[in-house]
């Protein structure tokens, strides 16, 4: 392998030639993490003998999106199909003219009714252009350690914990009881993870629909800040940075007892907690404040692509209900398509690690009850990652709640400007 070819494999995208040595059209696609698409690429090639799929995969979503938007601004270097994670979709919508309108270049039979309404509408720009086909979703549930609950004198079966997780007030009250009886184990992993779940439940998020920053004007954001930082000061947080090495180890070391659980988090817990804790983790549909979505992605076709219609057809096929069920079975990517959410294959899915929980049925019901998606303005994902999380971490490390708030506001303003 040449140096240039090796470099190509670790970048977000290297673009595709018009045709390979066999005269086939090459369609390149860039993704991050695990989409469950590997076998689907080969299947698509079998079904379309004139197409070669050229995949490029990056491990971490942060570096992936940074490189994606750099290439988007440069006007070159992007693949024919690019994945965009929900948190970074607002930035893509802000640059929507650089993506094809999939209503124009995509297959005519692909209608909005394929997806849950909130999933479809999230990828529509202010001019009504559709820039992304929805892939997976992240309907929220709550995961918790049954054995640690029992030791602290709390109810532990999924059908018994509803009262504990009925509201955020009841959740944090239960946290006080747990901390008082848990011998040093924290109630939750990270203040930022809790705050993000609460933030996504607000009618208005970090931006209003005129893209004005609302952090200082929206009293609910400050109220959530005060609630979470009060819980931190009462010893409920393990103070771990999500997806850090310490956070990963925290699962195995039983550092915390509850975890906000979008559907994709189950695989993370199983991987990090290990076989010895199988059956000790449980999942329940009860979630404080009601279900919302956290995570999921879209497939877009940049205007840079020389094969827009072929790329859109490929993206449409990958996001069809049949393929979404296959991706769910391969990687746990929970579908966003109405037909897929009613599939017996999905609804019958269980998870032995979580005590045989009926995860297909549980998360399908959560997904169906999610209302209108919260509007996300440009920079929303960056505020979450680069302003909110460091500010809450500062509080977890000893800064006062007011000091952390001022850091949060200042960083958010800098990002929004």
UniProtKB/TrEMBL annotation:
<dbReference type="Pfam" id="PF13416">
    <property type="entry name" value="SBP_bac_8"/>
</dbReference>
<dbReference type="InterPro" id="IPR050490">
    <property type="entry name" value="Bact_solute-bd_prot1"/>
</dbReference>
<keyword id="KW-0762">Sugar transport</keyword>
<dbReference type="InterPro" id="IPR006059">
    <property type="entry name" value="SBP"/>
</dbReference>
<protein>
    <submittedName>
        <fullName>ABC-type sugar transport system, periplasmic component</fullName>
    </submittedName>
</protein>
<keyword id="KW-0813">Transport</keyword>
């Amino acid at each position: 392998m040449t140096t240039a070819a090796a470099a190509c494999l670790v970048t977000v995208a290297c673009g595709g030639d018009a045709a390979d040595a066999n005269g086939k059209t090459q369609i390149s696609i860039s993704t991050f993490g695990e989409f469950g698409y590997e076998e689907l690429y080969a299947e698509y090639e079998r079904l379309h003998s004139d197409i070669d799929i050229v995949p490029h995969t990056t491990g971490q979503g942060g570096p992936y999106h940074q490189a994606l938007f750099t290439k988007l601004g440069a006007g070159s270097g992007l693949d024919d199909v690019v994945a965009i994670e929900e948190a970074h979709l607002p930035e893509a919508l802000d640059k929507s003219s650089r993506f094809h309108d999939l209503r124009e270049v995509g297959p005519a039979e692909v209608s909005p009714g394929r997806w849950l309404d909130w999933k479809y509408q999230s990828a529509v720009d202010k001019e009504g252009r559709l820039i992304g086909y929805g892939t997976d979703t992240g309907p929220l549930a709550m995961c918790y350690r049954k054995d640690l609950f029992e030791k602290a004198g709390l109810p532990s079966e999924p059908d018994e914990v509803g009262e504990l997780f009925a509201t955020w007030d009841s959740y944090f009250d239960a946290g006080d009881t747990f901390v008082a009886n848990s011998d040093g184990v924290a109630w939750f992993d990270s203040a930022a993870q809790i705050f993000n779940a609460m933030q996504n439940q607000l009618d208005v998020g970090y931006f209003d629909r005129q893209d004005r920053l609302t952090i200082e004007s929206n009293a609910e954001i400050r109220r959530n800040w005060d609630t979470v930082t009060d819980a931190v000061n009462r010893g409920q947080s393990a103070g771990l940075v999500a997806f850090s090495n310490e956070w990963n180890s925290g699962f195995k070391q039983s550092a915390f007892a509850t975890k906000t659980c979008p559907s994709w988090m189950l695989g993370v817990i199983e991987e990090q907690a290990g076989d010895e804790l199988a059956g000790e983790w449980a999942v329940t549909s009860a979630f404080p404040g009601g279900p919302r979505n956290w995570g999921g992605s879209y497939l877009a076709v940049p205007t840079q692509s020389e094969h827009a219609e072929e790329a859109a057809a490929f993206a449409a096929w990958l996001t069809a209900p049949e393929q979404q069920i296959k991706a769910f079975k391969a990687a746990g990517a929970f579908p966003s398509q109405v037909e897929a959410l009613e599939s017996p294959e999905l609804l019958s899915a269980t998870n032995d690690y979580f005590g045989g929980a009926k995860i297909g049925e549980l998360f399908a019901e959560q997904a169906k009850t999610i209302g209108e998606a919260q509007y996300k303005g440009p920079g929303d994902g960056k505020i979450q990652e680069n302003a909110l999380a460091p500010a809450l971490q500062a509080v977890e490390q000893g800064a006062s709640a007011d000091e952390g708030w001022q850091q949060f506001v200042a960083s958010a303003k800098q990002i929004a400007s």
